[in-house]
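User: Can you predict the 3D structure for this chain?
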Amino acid sequence: MTISKVTLRDTQNHVVIAKGGKPAVIDGYLEALSGLAGEPSAEAADTKNSKKQAPAGPAMRVRIGEIALAGKNQVLFTDNNADPAFKGDILIKSASLKQLDTASKKSSPFTADIELKPFTKLKLSGKTNLAGGGGDADWDASLTQLELPRLSPYAIENIGYFIENGQLELTSKGTLRNEQIEGENNIVINRLSVDPVNQDKVAGFTKQLSMPLGTAIMILQDDDDNIELDVPISGSLSDPDFGLDSVVKILAGKGLKQAAFSFLAKSLQPYGALISLAETAIDAASDGTFINLEPVAFTPGSAQLNNKARDYLGKVESMLKERKGMRLNICGQAVSQDAALLNARLLEANAQRAEPLTEEQLAAELKAQLTALAQSRNDSVKRELSKQVSGERLFVCFALPKLDDPKALPVATLGL
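Assistant: Here is the predicted structure, written as structure tokens:
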């Protein structure tokens, strides 16, 4: 059968997703289809059983020059699984699939111009031979002005965050070859801000991302509050474990996580090699440090910055100036190396006293000096960074001696 062109004009549909995730009308459609032939009579059944079934003939070949949508084609969408229910109004301004042949693996070009009211635009083009039994496709797509707060019901359900603000733009291109998908995606997110509302979901997503979402946003937002990500996606459609969840994980892992660590490593070169995740348990409700930068090294017994430390802090300073939303935690440490040096000085000075201190008094004095040394290291780092970075973005800890690890180095740790 050959058809020159099929045009659908000014159509209107309403897709309703019922509780449980299935379109509400699907059961009715299936029931209607199953009843079209009616119940076979006993006579027909006997006849069928008594005769050898005839071999099936060749499938009917259908060739269509073009299937097109024209005019105003509206699709109303309601998802009752979301809380509150998500409602969308989709306008298909134009769509076309050409050179369709169910018996040929020649690719059919397609285009679509879609508006997700009131502001989002989607343009799609490419070619595919899926209708002819092939497994290949190519696509180019662009999505603009996707207002993210409208997706908050889905964000809360999947990652535990309410989206307070944000707009997304996406350009995507890729191929499908023998059910293997390979794609490149450029994502720009403008002025994203989120609020954690479901701590269990937040904890799961934080573990997946290896950092709180707020920390990733803080690292990646530029001076214009924009986040730009280049995210490759690959996988096999025949793999039962590859689906929408896989895409979300790739976006989180290769997108946010990889981009965050890549920015840090690039900004701090050649000091970016020691960037690591904090080993403490992740507390989704906490704003504590989850990413450790390379610490600032000190000479045992001293809180003075050497040239290498100043050079490193210059890199940190430039990074903080580039990312205005970034906050830095500073925590000076006094360790066993410091204790050995300070204790030797104390014993030497004590020997010169007319009335030497007791062992108990010496221990108390050593502890006080170690605490002061750790705090002085806090102050040295913050004072150096404050030359170019607002002190309101630099947070120091209450420093205490850490003498439990004899191999610990005299440093001030830096964390995001």
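DSSP finds nine helices and 17 strands in the chain. The CA atoms of residues 231 and 255 lie 5 Å apart.
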